Amino acid sequence: MNSALLPAYARIPLAFERGEGAWLISSSGERYLDFGAGIAVASLGYGHPHLLAALEEQGAKLWHASNLFQIPQAERLAQRLTGASFADFAFFTNSGAEAIEAAIKTARKYHSSSGRPERYRIITFTGAFHGRTLAALAAGGNPKHLDGFGPRVDGFDTVPFDDIQSAESAIGSQTAAILVEPIQGEGGIRVPSPGFLKALRELCDRHGLLLIADEVQTGLGRTGRLFAYELFGAAPDIMAIAKGLGGGFPIGAILATRESARGMTPGTHGTTFGGNPLAASVANAVLDIVLAQGFVERVALLGHELKARLARLKERREAILEIRGEGLMLGIALNVPVDDFAAAARAEGLIVIPAAGNVARLLPPLTIREDEIAEAVSRLDRACHRAELARPPVLQPKEHGGAS
Predict the structure, then answer these.
(1) Is domain 50-290 in CATH 3.40.640.10, yes or no?
(2) Which of 72, 317, 334, 384 is the most buried (most CB within 10 A)?
């Protein structure tokens, strides 16, 4: 049967019918331990009773209301997010790419409203991924993603990741902001050196620029902190979040300081669905869990446990070159093709996500249990064995993504 879906994905012939905690059950009844979480989306796993209760309660009342009116659920969500971060304001979207677009517009409008409309360019970094809209693609700068979509949207200057000298050299009279993922996800779980983000913060302060953090993948506890910028001691002016914010329900946001958002007056931006009562209610339920005392600290401890187990696995397996990442956002740099490795993991009932640089991402639900971590590493061991038998490793220099 031919699919009526646009063939924009090379889909794996595997469909899931339901989920239970950290497990996915296929339409044929097979169980898979999910260390992908829908690419860091199912932050509280599947079937979480608190999220289901929030969805059912609000779903019986009101799904959608226009942003022409007050939405109490979104007001509460904004208060909680700003109260737990550097920000003064939140604006809700439906996705990470929309959040990035809103962040770009906010940065440009800040300078325009300050009498400097010529300052519109944004410095970005190699290996970045910011979404699939035209501006987000231009910000990411990946030639493969840009190919065939006409001229690249103007206004982005790409420099090497984790290279503060290159970032400083790129600053000119038209520069408005610097956009960075605190840890690159799609780029291969690349962690910058410890002082990089702080140095970017200092550059922005010195030159009157805004620092924009793309925490679409790293945010909401994923790295063992509520937001990854906390790991590096460098608060941004604007931040984009999404993925884990809704635990699987589509919602994103930008968080911004009062100063950086001063140009965003009525009529400058908008959204039809962003922050509607249903999405905001589910996101509030996610925050009930993530903001609870000890939750994020537990993620950090589980991340250390998983990383230690992976380090021991690396000692036994030639397929593994390096372990990198923070919290429950870890990457395995491989000495076998990552797609082959992901297929081998699926054959062992484990889901992992390929990334650039021949890296397999491990992004389990933040509610993962210790015994499930141990089970996942056992399955990774068997997946390594499968992959090594299918294609023996050829040792190569490691591709380092910075300190880990």
Answers:
(1) yes
(2) 384
Which is catalytic among the residues 35, 129, 156, 196? 129
Q: Which CATH number fits domain 16-45+294-390: 2.60.40.10, 3.30.360.10, 3.90.1150.10, 3.20.20.10?
A: 3.90.1150.10
Q: Delimit the domains of the chain by residue range.
A: 16-45+294-390, 50-290
To 10 degrees, what angle do helices 72-83 and 277-290 make? 30
Active site residue 129: yes
Query: In angstroms, rounded to a whole number, what is the distance separating the alpha carbons of residues 154 and 171?
Result: 16
Catalytic residue among 243, 249, 307, 341: 243
Q: Cα-Cα-Cα-Cα dihedral of 213, 215, 218, 221, to 10°?
A: 100
CA distance 260 to 266: 15
CB neighbours of residue 257 within 10 Å: 20
What are the pLDDT digits (tens) for 21-62?
999 999 999 999 999 999 999 999 999 999 999 999 999 999
Helix 338-347, helix 370-390: angle, nearest 10: 120
Judge if pTM exceeds 0.90. yes
pLDDT in tens, 78-134: 999 999 999 999 999 999 999 999 999 999 999 999 999 999 999 999 999 999 999
Q: Which of 34, 157, 162, 214 is catalytic?
A: 214
d(CA 354, CA 332): 10
